[in-house]
Amino acid sequence: MSPSPAPLNPLPSDTSTEADPPRKPTILDGLKSVHPSDFAQVHKTPCARESLLTGMGAGFGVGGLRLVFGGNPWTSMTYAVFSFSLVSAGAHAICQRRRQLEQASMQRATEIMARKKEERAMKMAEMKAERERRREEHERQKSGWGRMTGWFGGGGGGGGAKSDENGEGRK
């Protein structure tokens, strides 16, 4: 008889001693995680400065126009706050999308440059191998008795006697 398989859950089956399940975070937990120094550094986050300035301009413009063209100050401020919020959120989304596209194109450019560098290295290696092959061939041709080939009418030595393909003289 084979031994019984180990239980899938190694914890004891009595759950009364287990801790409570993790609770969902609340708004108060979120507020506790925000520190005043975070607001001092908001201008350093990507796209925040541009989008907030765009939203401020839009809020000022829309609220000012609403006030000038017959609105009371309270509704003008409401228009200004809503237009600030909407324009800032939209400008931030557009800026983030632009950054993503820029990062993707930079990554593509980096990959292309790496591939070109690799291709260039392979081409240089091929050229170096071809140069080495030619140098060896040139060295082989000029070394020893081989350089006498073609002088004195034939096969590498003096004498001037013509010989056929078998190395025998003419008869």
In a nutshell, what does this entry contain?
The chain has helices at residues 27-32, 36-40, 48-68, 73-142. It has 171 residues and is mostly helical. The longest helix has 70 residues, at 73-142.
Overall description:
Residues 156-160 have low confidence and may be disordered. The protein is built from 4 helices and no strands. With 171 residues, it is mainly α. Helix 3 (48-68) runs antiparallel to helix 4. The radius of gyration is 42 Å and the shape is elongated.
Low-confidence stretches: 156-160
DSSP helix fraction: 55-70%
Number of beta strands: 0
Shape: elongated
Report how far apart the termini are. Answer: 100 Å
Order of helices and strands: HHHH
Radius of gyration: 42 Å
| Average pLDDT level | 81
In this structure, how is the largest beta sheet organized? none
Percentage of β-strand residues:
under 5%
Alpha-beta classification: mainly alpha
**Count of helices?**
4
What are the salient characteristics of this protein?
171 residues; mainly alpha; 4 helices
